């Protein structure tokens, strides 16, 4: 087996760099709200952070839908079958938009009930309700954009997402600044201004995507017919590989949300510190998430071309890259801790928590880097989507969440002890993911050579 590693790294960087920029920009949108609202007050920051958990869970379902699609689209891309990819895109849009409608109705109809899941502080709940009643409208726009751009990623069209999210970030920063602080004669709207900024940014994203789809993308098109006329055989394949991913992301998301809910009942100081720590972790992991997505795309295409030994060799290189980027991310988190404390308007208690949480996030980020690349990138590229589901349910719901809740509410441990337990799942996962990788059960071709034409209308 002769591999041109120079070509490999060049191709990988062409995927990783745009996707890392996309991740950075997406985190920048969240960071904009955190930074700007952090200067308004701790209760406002906590309200927006906890309200964001509703979108977080929805986004993870989107990610499950699109990651399941990527399992198929990347391999069909390797085969050169673009018509089947269009059918997969149609299914993804149908499932994504349907999910968004449910979450939008919940955010608009029962925002107070949703907020009460995460906190008992009436002031924080009131601020979160203001945010949800506006930002809930953005969910439907977000669904369309995310599904389309993820499918484009799987066929190596990654630059368009960078452009879309960059324009969205610029719009969000400008509108946030104007409406949160009341600049240029506009009313000072606080948390509601941040929500309006997010809504307008999501609308802008859809407009840019539609222009690209109509005028520039002549390879894979959006066909309304494919949204409402679904190939039965392809639907079966899609459900087999996507449903474990959807459930995996949902269980992981609910687990992360449960962590936030537990922390939310430990006081607004802990909530505020954790919201900053989570943004720092996301910023430190932007390249890692780019690598994991590139892994799924590159290995999926290679498997679709039936180059299995090449896929094994590539997967090992991706694992090494993820470890190196995880270590770099940990260093960034440790360096950022004192800077964050110096710039945020936090209480002395929150500042103490923040420094400790940043330390925990530093080693958490290294383990997460390796686990994410293996589970989300390598395993899913070959259709091994059930392993991640079992792993997350066992380590989060069977270990860290139960023990963390017991530490918080039964044994009344300190915030620091509870936090260490809640953030232990990635460490527990590590030996299991490594063992699975070297077993090579994930390596298989999941495409079909001849799809039956029967459809579901």
Any chance you could write out the topology, listing elements then pairs?
Elements: H1 5-38, H2 42-79, H3 82-109, H4 111-118, H5 122-135, H6 138-154, H7 159-181, H8 191-215, H9 224-228, E1 230-231, H10 232-264, H11 268-284, H12 286-304, H13 308-343, H14 348-381, H15 386-409, H16 415-422, H17 425-439, E2 455-456
Antiparallel strand pairs: 1-2
Helix pairs in contact: 1-2, 1-7, 1-11, 1-12, 2-3, 2-5, 2-6, 2-10, 2-11, 2-12, 3-6, 4-5, 5-8, 6-8, 7-8, 10-15, 11-13, 11-14, 12-13, 12-14, 13-14, 14-16, 14-17, 15-16, 15-17
Strand ordering within the main sheet: 1-2
Tell me the distance between the termini: 46 Å
Tell me, briefly, the overall form: globular
**Strands, total number:** 2
The number of helical runs is: 17
Query: How much strand?
Result: under 5%
Report low-confidence residues grouped into runs of 5 or more. Answer: none
Helix fraction bin: over 70%
Tell me the major beta sheet.
2 strands, antiparallel
Helix and strand composition category: mainly alpha
Radius of gyration: 22 Å
H-E order: HHHHHHHHHEHHHHHHHHE
Overall mean pLDDT:
88
């Amino acid at each position: 087996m002769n591999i041109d590693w120079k070509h490999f790294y060049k191709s990988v960087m062409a995927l990783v760099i745009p996707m890392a920029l996309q991740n950075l920009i997406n985190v920048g949108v969240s960071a904009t709200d955190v930074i700007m609202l952090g200067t308004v007050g701790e209760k406002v920051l906590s309200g927006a952070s906890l309200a964001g958990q509703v979108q977080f869970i929805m986004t993870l379902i989107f990610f499950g839908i699109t990651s399941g699609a990527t399992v198929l689209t990347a391999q069909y891309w390797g085969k050169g079958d673009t018509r089947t990819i269009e059918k997969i895109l149609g299914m993804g849009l149908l499932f994504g938009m349907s999910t968004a409608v449910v979450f939008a109705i919940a955010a608009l109809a029962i925002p107070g009930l949703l907020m009460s899941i995460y906190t008992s502080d009436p002031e924080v709940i009131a601020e979160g309700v203001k945010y949800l009643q506006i930002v809930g409208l953005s969910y439907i726009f977000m669904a369309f954009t995310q599904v389309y751009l993820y499918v484009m990623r799987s066929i190596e069209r990654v630059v368009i997402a960078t452009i879309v999210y960059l324009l969205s970030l610029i719009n969000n920063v400008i509108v946030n600044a104007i409406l949160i602080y009341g600049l240029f004669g506009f009313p000072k709207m606080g948390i509601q201004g941040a929500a309006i900024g997010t809504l307008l940014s999501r609308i802008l994203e859809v407009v840019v995507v539609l222009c690209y789809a109509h005028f520039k993308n002549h390879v894979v098109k959006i066909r309304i017919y494919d949204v409402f006329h679904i190939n039965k055989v392809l639907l079966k394949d899609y459900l087999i590989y996507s449903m474990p991913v959807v459930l995996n992301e949902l269980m992981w998301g609910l687990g992360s949300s449960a962590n936030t809910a537990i922390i939310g009942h430990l006081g607004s100081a802990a909530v505020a510190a954790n919201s900053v720590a989570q943004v720092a972790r996301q910023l430190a992991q932007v390249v890692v998430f780019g690598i994991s997505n590139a892994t799924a795309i590159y290995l999926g295409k290679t498997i679709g071309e039936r180059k299995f030994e090449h896929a094994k060799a590539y997967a090992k290189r991706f694992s090494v890259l993820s470890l190196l980027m995880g270590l770099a991310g940990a260093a960034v988190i440790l360096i950022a801790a004192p800077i964050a404390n110096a710039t945020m308007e936090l209480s002395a208690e929150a500042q103490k928590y923040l420094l400790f949480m940043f330390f925990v996030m530093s080693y958490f980020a290294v383990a997460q880097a390796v686990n994410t690349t293996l589970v989300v990138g390598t395993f899913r590229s070959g259709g091994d989507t059930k392993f991640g589901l079992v792993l997350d349910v066992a380590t989060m719901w069977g270990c860290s969440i139960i023990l963390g809740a017991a530490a918080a509410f039964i044994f009344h441990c300190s915030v620091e002890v509870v936090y260490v337990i809640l953030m232990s799942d990635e460490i527990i996962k590590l030996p299991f993911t490594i063992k699975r990788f070297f077993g090579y059960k994930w390596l298989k071709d999941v495409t079909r050579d001849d799809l039956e034409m029967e459809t579901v209308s």
